[in-house]
Amino acid sequence: MKKTLDLVLYIFIALAIAFSLVSLSLITVRSEKVKESLLLAEKENQPAKLELIKIAASSCKDCFDVDPVIESLKKSNANVTERTLEFSSAEAKQLISQYNIGKLPTVIVLGEVNKSSVANLWNQEWKVGMENGTQVSSVYAAVSPPYVDASGNIKGMVILTHIVDQSCPNCTNLTQLIGFLKQSNVRFTEEKTIDYASPEAKDLISRFGIQKVPAIVISKDILDYPPVAQVWDQLNATEKQGFYPLHTLAPPYRNLETGKIEGLVTVIYLRDDTCTSCYDVKLNKLILERTFGLMIVNETEADVSSDYGKSLLKQYNMTKVPVILVSSDAAMYSGFPVVWPQVGNIASDGWHVMRNPEVLGTYKDLSSGQVISPPQPEGG
Predict the structure, then answer these.
(1) Burial classification of residue 250, based on how many CB atoms lie within 10 Å of its CB (0-12 exposed, 13-18 middle, 19 or more buried)
(2) What is the mean pLDDT of the segment spanning 64-81?
(3) What is the SS3 assignment for 338?
(4) What count of other Cβ atoms lies within 10 Å of the Cβ of residue 292?
(5) Strands of 147-149's sheet, edge to edge?
């Protein structure tokens, strides 16, 4: 019996020792893992070591400035080393090929680029290089024009010539288009305005078949700017000899085929001074200018009792006043020909004759002598 108890006791002691050894081993393993995790965390929290390689294009003084990008990287949680290579050097050419770089100057970032402390730096402006699922490089890709391409050609240096008619102060101009280009950060190596009658303008007009002035002749480098390239097709411009000629679409302008300025509008206001409750005929002026953009350069007012007023009534067979007559050039303005049939017609001589003054308010019927107020809409 005593031997049996001793055997059981030995077994328990052996099991206890074995359990202690296993526990000690587990504790040691866990401790090592904790230490390893702490070391990894400590290492991760240390500033990333980044190597910046700037590939410069010193020959292009007006090209994109990549230095602010580099300065921003230096201010991040990183230990930065930096060196500069000229894009024409052998090492730079090798890097340009290796990282498939198309626009210069730029910066290549190597080193601990995959560290969490710098992960937020690599936004959509950067092209990230991966190997075996790990980030190994970042190349700045948001290089805007002007820039040097991989072949050494300068892109985005635009030449613009604005051809105007200095004798036509009322003519439209293309300054809004030029303003849009400048807001899109287009860089002009040459920008000038010349009169259409000058020898230089005549040469451009002949070379590019320009038919209307004002016009713009702009180099094809304009398409190196993405914001402009996105809307360029809307202009229906055709490239010729490396340039795009653009002429105004909105009047007034000088038609070079006829030599005449088109789009200058004359308006005649015909009223009846005895009708004090009639709508103000000058309301039409606001509509013509603000809604349709008409350039009114001549205005005449006449009362139906005057000789001129009577001749107009007879010539155009008008029976209602107040009304207006608008010269034929009004048809050149977008939208006007669409709306005009609702208020009048076009006479055989091209003048637009108002027939329905009731669309604007109270009027006088000259046939009956009655002053008529149009019915108010329900709820009005």
Answers:
(1) middle
(2) 93
(3) helix
(4) 18
(5) 103-104, 147-149, 154-155
d(CA 158, CA 218): 7
Provide mean pLDDT across the span 266-276: 98
Encoded tokens for 237: 């411009």
Question: From the CB of residue 327, how many other CB atoms can be counted at a distance below 10 Å?
Answer: 19
Do you find a cis peptide bond into 251, omega within 30 degrees of 0?
no
Mean of the pLDDT values across residues 207-212? 96
For tokens 């009534």, name the residue: 313
Which of these, 67, 154, 156, 80, lies nearest to 106 by C-alpha position?
A: 67
Q: How far apart are CA 105 and CA 155, in angstroms?
A: 12
Q: How far is CA 263 from CA 287, 323, 332, 354, in A?
A: 17, 21, 6, 19
Q: With the CA atoms of 91, 97, 102 and 105 taken in that order, what torsion angle do they form, in degrees rounded to the nearest 10?
A: -10
- Residue 333 in contact with residue 293, Cβ under 8 Å? yes
Dihedral angle of Cα 70, 74, 79, 82, to the nearest 10 degrees? 30
Give the CA dihedral 265, 271, 277, 281, nearest 10 degrees.
0
Segment 283-302, tens digit of pLDDT: 999 999 999 999 999 999 99
Please state the pTM of the whole predicted model. Answer: 0.76
